[in-house]
Structure formats: C-alpha cells, structure tokens
Amino acid sequence: MRSWQKLIRFTPVAVIIVSGLCFLVVLLLRSSGSLESLELTAYDWSIRLQPKSLHPVPRIVVIHITEQDIHTLGRWPLTDAVLSQTLKNILMHDPCAIGVDIFRDIPIPPGSGELTDLLDSNSNIICVTKFGNGGVLPPPILEKTAQVGFNDILVDPGGIVRRGLLFLDDKKEVHYSLNLLLALHFLQQHGISAQPDEHHPEYLKLGGTTIKPLGKNQGGYIDSDDRGYQFLIDFMDSPDFYLSYSLGRLLSGQINPSDFQDKIVLIGVSAQSVKDLFYTPLSRSIRAEQQMPGVVLHARLTSQLIRFGLHESHPLKTAGKKQASAFIWVWALAGSLTGFFIRSPWRFSLVICSGLVFLWILSYAAFLNQWWIPLVPPAVAWLSSAGLSTAYVSNRERKHKSVLMQLFSKHVSKEIADAIWDQRDQFLSNGRPVPQKMTVTILFSDIKGFTTISETLDPQSLIEWLNTYMGAMTETIMAHGGVVDDYAGDGIKANFGVPFPRETRAAIAQDAVNAVTCAIAMGQKVEELNAALETQKLPTVGTRIGIFTGSVVAGALGSSQRMKYTTVGDAVNTAARLESYDKNLAGDNPWRILIGEPTLQYLNDQFNVQMIGKTGLKGKNETINIYRVFSSKDNPVNRG
After folding, report:
1. 33: region left, alpha or beta (phi > 0 left; psi from -120 to 50 alpha)
2. How far is 616 from 224, CA to CA, in rounded Å?
C-alpha cells in the first residue's frame, strides 16, 4: 500500500493516472451516448458558421405550393389535372429533369388519364415513393421503372435532419433516392455516371468523388440507425443556390422560360398546413419559421450530390475510432499537466479558457477542410482532467501545508512561513521536510530564579506567568527572523538560518547578528517582566542565553502523528553548554549572553563584547573561546 502511495506521489505517474482515468470516463460517457447531443449541437454550429458556396448560375428551380396556392385552387391535394398542367408548363422549357415531391399512389380526378400519359411519355419526370411509416407507393404507371425515387428523410433524435440517403434495400432490390436520380440526370449532361469505387467496390463514386457510407458510430453519432446508404448533409449551398417560384406564378405564366432550361425542377409543398417541414442545423430555434420545407431540403441534397460529381466539394470525412480516442487522450493528458503544473488561479483559468478556444478553432479548421473531429469529448477530457489533477494537487498541498504549518506556523514570522510554502517543492519530499546540512546560529535561553518564583506562585498563576514569558520571548525571536525549535520547561531553543540553507557568508553573518540582537531584546523583555513582578511584590527573575554558530543537520524528527522540525549537531550541543556555563557569571544583572568564537567572527564588531576565557565545556573534550555580549555599539546602555 505504501509503495502504491509513493508511486502516485511521483508527478509523472500521477499525471498519467489522472489523465488515464478521465480518458476512460470520457470514453465510457461517449460510448453510452451521453455526449452525443452536445457533439451534434457543436456540429450544427460549425454548419451555421461555415462559408457558403456560391453558384454563378442556379442549377435547380423549386416550385413551391404555398398556402395561397391551396386557397386559390380551393382544395388539397392537387387534382391530377392541375399537376398535369404544371408538368406541361415546365416541360415546354426543356428542363434536365423534374422531381415531383408529391405522392400520387392513387388517382385524384379529373385529369388522371392525362397525367398517366404524361408520366409514361417523359422519362425525365421522377416521382416519389416512401418506405417509412407504412410506406406510400409511386404512381402505378411508374412502378418498377427508373422514374421512382424514395423521399424518406432521416431525422435525428431531437428532430434535426443532418443525414441524407442514397439507397435503401428492402431485401428484394436496391432503391434509389429522389435526390440521387435527379443528380444523375444532371451529371449525365457532363458525361458523369454512378460508378463503384476502384478500391472499395461497395462505395458509390460520382465523377472523381467517392461517397463513403456513414457508419453507426462515426462523427458524433453513437449507435445510430445506419440502415441504407447514408451521407452527411453539408448545407454548404448559399440561400440563392436555387430559383424559386410559387405554383400560382407558374400556372399564370409569370416566369422566365430560360430559368428552366437544362435545370432540375423540384415541385413540392411549403404550406404550413401540409406539414412537410423539417428542422436542420441551420434552424436556430424551434419556431415554425425556422423549419425547412421538404422540397427545399431535397433541393439541397440534390445540389450537394451534383457538387460531388463535378468535384466542386467533397464529402465530410470522420475520424476513425482509434484516431478519435488518441485525440481525446492527448487532451486528457494536456489537461492533467495543466492542473499539476499551473497553480496560479488566474493563470489556470486563462490556460483552461485558451485551451477550449484553441480546441474549438482546431475543430472548426478541420471542419472547413472537410473533417469532422470530436469537439465535446476532448473538451470534457480537458476540463475533467485539469479539474481532477487540480483537486489532487490541492489535496496534496493541503496535507503538505498542514505538515508545514504544524511544524512552523506557531514558531516563525508570516514572512518566513510564506517563504517556506512558496519554496515547498525544494523543501518537502513525500510530505516531510528534506534533511539538510547547513550553517546555523543556535540560541538557547533559560530562566534564572525560576525555582524561587515557582515556589511563590500557585500552579495556575505560575502557568499564566510562564505563558506570558514564553509568549514574549517567542514574539521577540520571530520578530528577529528566528525559528522556535523547542520549549523545555522554562527553556527555549531557537534557530537562526533555517529552514533554507544560506549560500553566502554575508547571509550567515546576518543570522548571527539577528540572533545576538534578539538575545539583547529578550533581556530587555525580562526587565519589563521583572517590573511587573516587583509591583506584585514577587521575586524577580533573570535569563541566561547561549549562542553558537556552526554546522548542523536540520530536518523533521518523529512520526507522522507527532513530528517536529529541529536541528541536531555539535553546534547545538555547544550552544546549550554556553547557556548553562557558570550560572553565577551574570551577578545582579537580569540577563546574560554568552557566545562562541565562530559567532563573534560573524558579528563584524557590531557589539560590545568581553572575552570570558578559553575553557572546556561540559561534555566536550576541546576548549573554546567564550565571549560575553553586553550591548550593541549603537545602543551601549544595554547590559549583558
């Protein structure tokens, strides 16, 4: 268990684990279809924003049967006579082909015989049949002929049309769509016909363009209905890609005859009452005016197939499963790296937003180059992995900060605490301070006369006084840049020069100066406390302070439940011996400071000192020079 915890603390491993977890979750969400609606919505926005193709001369004419036409004729559906007259008016202007997007499975007299003869004698008239919802048969005269195409429309969940159909198979024969038959009539004028692809004979090829059938799990689709030969509608045509006339204008002769010559003519209904209307990616709301008449949708599908055949555009390609997964994994990994290495909140927010913008630009640029790559899954992977890694780092840092604050918060100034936290990466390893060898100035202090005062005060008063003393000393130490290491009864140990190693002699010297200055300030605090004791007619106290500068090892000692940051080494022992050396040396002075020769060498003659002598200390074999500090030269009235 410990080896596993140690492994995930290693940042590269943690990055891979977090990104891998988010990647797998996103794949699971994607495969379940949970992200499909968002991905299709993003696709719709790309459709709306794409530049529209321009047609110098429209290739399609749409004859709309409007609400006004129905009112003028006084009935619906159209009689066979009206439909025959409509077809005659168009045929007299030599169209390439006519698509009748109106069902005529049963005669609607009068004029039924005339319509039958007209359909039989003009092979360029294509009528419709329907497979879905029970099906609708074509006109009887056209059954089993090449003049019948189905007009079934694929509607995605949510009511949006994004896919077109080329073929449907009823297990008996393959049927052509209305759009494909009309496009083939037009392309035939350019010597283009439907051919199988050379490498994949099961794919349809128009001119130089192969139309690969859309599978059930391609693009943003997950387990979609893939029956028939499907392709994505690109909606690239500009709004003026076709000419438009109402049926009334056609029947009254208010048209330009040249508008029909060599063009495809589609006849269909746009009246709201007939309900042959569809929502598309171009629809911006669910309002009725945002719907596209079926006849216009068929015109778009036919125009798109013509563009394919003339090599003016290409079918939209989709990323394969492996490519899409790799793309999502890259974004999950990038999000994880962002969460681990960017800790500033505003920079993190900036990078996250910039990443989303870049992902959208990349996706849209690919779309403009006829590629539909995932947008929502990598965005979810990017956000989730960044969020999870940030949460992981925050939790880890919270634990580390808890350890640091437990070790230091009560014993150092705010500036030092902030510096420790800012440099935690160099200071911490596996949640513990890294042991370091460094040159430090150690300060030990002890109360002289504590036994007498403890016998005078009751236990509660004694503790209150001792807390007052310790509080005053601790504040003084922290104010001079020291770190309180330990309390032992009435004694205090402090370190100057931790927790970061000093790299120059000047920095070590400053620590020594700070320690001696602090000792003098501690003595002055004792004088203030004695004044309070005298007013209470209680015995006064003194303090002995020993200071020594030398090499130590600094680190955390103890278990994870109870740990403290401390220094160990010969310099620590020497400072403790200096504090306890010749307890009567101070005489009547309330405080006494003794330092060793190494500390004196760093003071640069800033203090008034007196050599006590060269002497051996208890527990040490060699002798050292001991000096007593009386005051700083800037304030010679201090006593020591």
Report:
1. left
2. 91
Q: Assign 156 to helix, strand or coil.
A: coil
pLDDT digits (tens, 9 = 90+) for 445-472: 998 878 777 888 888 888 888 888 888 8
Per residue in 359-416, pLDDT (tens digit) is 999 999 999 999 999 999 999 999 999 999 888 877 776 665 565 555 555 555 455 5
- C-alpha 539/C-alpha 456 separation (Å) is 8
- Contact predicate 162/135, CB 8 Å: no
Rounded to 10 degrees, the C-alpha dihedral 563/565/570/571 comes to -150
Minimal CA–CA distance to 392: which of 331, 339, 449, 431?
339
CA 358 to chain centre: 11
DSSP 415-471: HHHHHHHHTHHHHEETTEEPPEEEEEEEEEEEEETHHHHHHHS-HHHHHHHHHHHHH
Burial of 449 (0-12, 13-18, 19+ CB in 10 A): middle
pLDDT value of position 7 = 40
The full set of domain ranges for the chain reads 2-32+321-403, 57-313, 410-632
Q: Is 344 exposed, middle or buried (0-12, 13-18, 19+ CB in 10 A)?
A: exposed
Q: Where are the beta strands (DSSP E) in 294-409?
A: 317-318, 371-372
Tell me the one-letter amino acid at 321: K
- What are the C-alpha distances in Å from 3 to residues 8, 10, 15, 430, 553? 9, 11, 17, 12, 27
Asked if 382 and 336 touch (Cβ cutoff 8 Å), the reply is no
Handedness of CA 409, 415, 416, 418 (dihedral sign): positive
Render pLDDT for 246-274 as a digit per residue (tens, 0 to 9). 999 999 988 888 899 999 999 999 999 99
Beta-carbon neighbour count of residue 439 at 10 Å? 19
Long-range contacts of residues 117-121, Cβ cutoff 8 Å, at least 24 apart: 118/84, 118/87, 118/88, 119/147
Phi-psi region of 537 (alpha: psi -120 to 50; beta: other; left: phi over 0): left
Q: What percent of the chain has pLDDT over 90?
A: 63
Query: Residue 233 corresponds to which tokens in the numbers above?
Result: 């509608």
DSSP-derived letter for residue 272 is G
3 state DSSP class of 495:
strand
Both structure tokens of 16: 């891979």
Q: Which token pair is 94?
A: 């030599």
May I ask the CATH class of domain 410-632? alpha beta
With contact defined as beta carbons under 8 Å apart, do 72 and 53 qualify? Answer: no
Q: What's the pTM?
A: 0.70
Nearest to 20 by CA among 391, 390, 388, 394: 388
pLDDT along the chain (640 residues), means of 10: 44 84 94 94 94 84 96 93 96 96 95 95 96 88 94 93 94 92 96 94 94 92 92 92 95 90 96 93 80 96 96 91 93 91 87 96 94 95 93 73 55 54 59 80 90 82 85 90 85 90 92 96 91 83 93 78 79 91 75 94 93 73 87 72
Q: Is 569 helix (H, G, I), strand (E, B) or coil?
A: coil
**Three-state secondary structure call for residue 60:** strand
- The pLDDT tens digits of the residues spanning 473-489 come to 989 998 998 988 888 87
12: exposed, middle or buried (Cβ count in 10 Å: 0-12, 13-18, 19+):
exposed
- Could you give the CA distance from residue 242 to residue 244 in angstroms, rounded to a whole number? 6
Q: What's the chain's Rg over C-alpha atoms?
A: 45
CA-to-CA distance for 584 and 476, rounded, in angstroms?
25
- Which H or E run includes 483? strand 483-488
How far apart (Å, rounded) are the C-alpha atoms in residues 485 and 477? Answer: 11
**Residue 269: phi, psi to the nearest 5?**
-105, 135
